[in-house]
């Protein structure tokens, strides 16, 4: 395993709303390794995007990081806790060392500025040299006539091309970490496959780390090295892709895999019973216990810790403690 580039410890994030306090992240623990693609998966509302935005420190105004740390490895023995940085200090990190790809390229791009400005605006240096770098990245993203694309406005491009522009803007500074938040959700299946292949190839070419946020396990299986499964604000299991699909440990992970349709397999889909809990009033103990077929008394009282049960395999489940 390579060096840890990002280490998250006891991260707790609350949203303060008119309806009450929503505990979106509750003591999240996670390590990300240099050069890997780590997929973070789970149902809608489980905290995936909140975790991504916490790393990039672009949470909405009603969100508060209550406690915890996000330690970024800058290399050469230098580290920094992103939670404790001021906004001025974050400007030097965000978009340069840590970049983000958003799921809706139309919302991420300004309709009144040309592509050239949006790809190169956050890069310092001589104008002609920066534009040449932008053209080279667009070539890597298989964009035809990059010099012409840079002169267009977003509305002149297709959805797939706009997503490539968003990716180009995130790559131009050669960041240490790229956070891709559902980057293919708004695209058709063919373009989605192309974007995933590009991300995988660029990870190797640029030697960067990618954190992929997705609700789609098939997407995670396509390009990820490891998968972290989230449920109701907790990370409940972490494993390499093969091990997770071959032998899931957490009951929630097992339920997710059983609920996936399998082509050419005459097997009935088994949906996970019940609904995810309200994070404004989560159940005590293990938050999955109201839906778990293996629930025990201890599950209702004590929150299980995320611990390594086998080399590289972490799970938060009282069943695995026995």
TrEMBL record:
GO MF annotations, alphabetized: ABC-type nickel transporter activity; ATP binding; ATP hydrolysis activity
Membrane topology listed for this record: Peripheral membrane protein
Domain of life: Archaea
SMART domains, per the entry: AAA
Catalyses which reaction(s): Ni(2+)(out) + ATP + H2O = Ni(2+)(in) + ADP + phosphate + H(+)
Subunit structure as annotated in this protein's UniProt entry: The complex is composed of two ATP-binding proteins (NikD and NikE), two transmembrane proteins (NikB and NikC) and a solute-binding protein (NikA).
Pfam families hit by this protein: ABC_tran (PF00005), oligo_HPY (PF08352)
Sorted UniProt keywords: ATP-binding, Cell membrane, Ion transport, Membrane, Nucleotide-binding, Translocase, Transport
Domain named ABC transporter: residues: 8-257
Organism: Aeropyrum pernix (strain ATCC 700893 / DSM 11879 / JCM 9820 / NBRC 100138 / K1)
Broad class of enzyme this protein falls into: translocase
Designated name of the protein: Nickel import system ATP-binding protein NikD
Gene Ontology cellular component terms for the protein in this record: plasma membrane
Extent of the signal sequence: none
Cellular compartment(s): Cell membrane
Enzyme Commission no: 7.2.2.11
Family annotation (Gene3D superfamilies): P-loop containing nucleotide triphosphate hydrolases
GO biological process, one term: peptide transport
